Amino acid sequence: MIKLLEVKTLKAHVLELSFSDHSHGVFDGAAYLATRQGPLLEALHDPAYFARCFVDAGALCWPNGLELSGARLHELVSAAQTA
User: What are phi and psi of 55, to 5 degrees?
Assistant: First the structure.
């Protein structure tokens, strides 16, 4: 199972991610949020809140309890690189 190891904010809603399989990629949070909705996602529209992300147990997390799995992020980043 691929886990997220490190996250770095590059700019508003854009994160650089490092994974346990030694791959790296850029996650476009704005594009992700544009296609999804829900109560936990609302706070992420604020760039300052989005930047409060952290890694916990291989997942990308925010203080409100939202978690995106490392495996799902790896899929999203890989798909974006091949598009």
Answer: -100, 130
Residue 69 main-chain phi, psi, to 5 deg: -65, 150
Q: Helix (H, G, I), strand (E, B), or coil: what is residue 58? A: coil
Per-residue pLDDT of the chain (83 residues; tens, 9 = 90+): 899 999 999 999 999 999 999 999 999 999 999 999 999 999 999 999 999 999 999 999 999 999 999 999 999 998 777 76
* 30 three-class SS: helix
Q: Structure tokens of 67? A: 């978690």
CA 19/CA 58 separation, integer angstroms: 9
